[in-house]
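User: Sequence in, structure out. Go.
Assistant: Echoing your sequence, followed by the structure tokens.
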Amino acid sequence: MPLSDTDTPPRQEMDDPLSDMEDEFEELYEEDLEMVDDGNNGAIEDNDEGMGSDGDSSEFIPERDDAAVVFSNHTEPVFCGNFNKAATLAVTGSQDDKAFIWDTSNGNVISELKNHKDSVVAAEFNYDDTLLATADLGGTIQVWNVTSSELIWSEKIEEFRWMKWHSASSVLLCATPHEGTYFWKLPEGICKVLPHHDPAVANDCGLLMPDGLRAAQGYSDGTLKVFDLKACAAIASFTADSAANCLTAHPDNNLVAVGYANGQVMLYKTNPAKLVTEFNEERTDNLPYAESIRFSPDANLPYLVVGFLTGCINVWDLSKQTLRHRLNATYGVVQLCWDKHTLNIFGGLCDGSVIAIDPRDGTKKAQLLGHKNNILDMTLSTDGSKVLTTSEDKTARIFHIQSLQN
């Protein structure tokens, strides 16, 4: 809903974000923002929290429950979840306006994070696991001390869209649909803003580039813009004829792939800015939605994988710019994760299951069951040993995947 002037960060910081803060941000970007790859390319692609289903919210009974831990403290659908780096802690956020930090070994609650007044749709630990950010649809952003569970900073912005911590510094980016993308140096709370190219066009997805110095953002009119964070200015721009739905950045720090609502996939270079190729195998007028997209984390495996809400998973060979495998997952794909240790791809589906795929030969290696409704979010632990899923069935589950480490 619209916010009053008192709900938003100081207007002078938006109009002249470099005015009195140049010295602070010069130090921040020259010393803190080093070139770091956090293993998942900083991607934030899920821009339809709670919308992974086809409208049927009835629960079903899975054949078995493969989960090692089931977290059942939420009373409404669980929209988001993340691990800390050691995967000893998990955080989940829900439609019940709550977030919990809990022990991944047994599901015991460490802390209940309150004060949200709307669905918590993003929750993430910072680069060194000392801070935790939670955000709700109403635009309330809260940052907590992980050790003490103390609230150390909060802000109210326009309706929330997506959020991402920097990979090497306690800088938090939070996007609104129309007003801009704020980023704060915490705990000081120093604010800068990346302006939207058109306030009438929604900012639907975004990510930090691996160098930590730039951000890419996709918009509902098909525009993709790459911003210099220090200058708060766009340095590259691309256009397409359908809404940008998901993004991924290549570890080489130059390529960006975008999945669109019409099923089209574009591959761009950011410097110099140019279209490399477009993949149109799934493009239709029925809006099949490219819902999740990932580059391979291994330079020796030049693949790009895309999951669609139609249930299709495409693996493209970038060196040949051809489709290598086209897999039918039967149910819509909500999220994809690529394990950098085994190179298996994990897909979270609308039927509540997780599938593991070997992209090299296109075979399905495993199916993990347990959820009684759609998966809404999924993440992989840094060491590749655990998968955390959240679901419309009001639970979060942790699956141990050591058996697939071969």
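User: And one key feature?
Assistant: The longest helix spans residues 22-32.
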